[in-house]
Each structure stands twice: as C-alpha cells, then as structure tokens.
Amino acid sequence: MRGETAVIWERLHEFFAMGGFALYVWGSYAVALAVVLIEIVLLILRKRSILGHLGWTGADLKTPDEERLAQHRRPDREGVVENELP
Q1: pLDDT in tens, 13-52
Q2: For residues 5 and 47, what is the distance between their CA atoms, to the nearest angstrom?
Q3: Assuming Cys at both sites, which of 33, 72, 80, 84 could form a disulfide with 76, CB separation 3.0 to 4.6 Å?
Q4: Within 10 Å of residue 33's Cβ, how many Cβ atoms?
Q5: C-alpha atoms less than 13 angstroms from C-alpha of 78 in its C-beta half-sphere
Q6: From CA 64, how far away is CA 59, in angstroms rounded?
C-alpha cells in the first residue's frame, strides 16, 4: 500500500527497542497484564466471599470426577489412603 512502511527488524534487540518507543510499548503491555491479573484475583476473592455468605464450603463444590474418586478411596492398613478406581 502507498505511504506505509514495513517494519523489519534484523536483530532481536531491535525488535525489543521498538524503534525507540520500547518504554511506551512494553510499559503498555505490562500495565495491561497487571490489570488482567488483578481482575482475576479480585474475581476469585469475590467468588469466595459470596460463597462464604451463602454458607457453601469447598466440599460442596466438588466436580463429578472428584466425587467419583472420593467414593472409591479406602484407608490402607497404615492409615494411608489408596485410590481404588473401578
């Protein structure tokens, strides 16, 4: 296309320098990543808080696979739990 120049980096450090705009480019990526990670942590904390207010425990939230495994556990002769899968 006319008027557009392709950016071609010959070396890896040129890519990371981003034509002199590395601070802005990589800083933007870092801020975006931090915001996403903070949002994930806040969602997890909010979920725990809501479930706590509802009176649910982690035992109430087992997946079907965890339920199936729990049904087939038996104590070993030394008190160590062994799994017996069907």
Answers
A1: 888 888 888 899 999 999 999 999 999 999 999 998 988 8
A2: 48
A3: 80
A4: 10
A5: 2
A6: 12
- Structure letter (DSSP) for residue 16: H
Give the pTM. 0.54
- Whole-angstrom CA distances from 10 to 14, 19, 27, 53 are 7, 12, 23, 57
* Distance (Å, whole) CA 31 – CA 23: 12
Domain ranges of the chain: 29-80
Q: What angle do CA 62, 35, 24 make, to 5 degrees?
A: 150
Q: Is the separation of the CB atoms in 85 and 72 below 8 Å?
A: yes
Residue type, 10: E
Alpha carbons within 13 A on the beta-carbon side of 35: 6
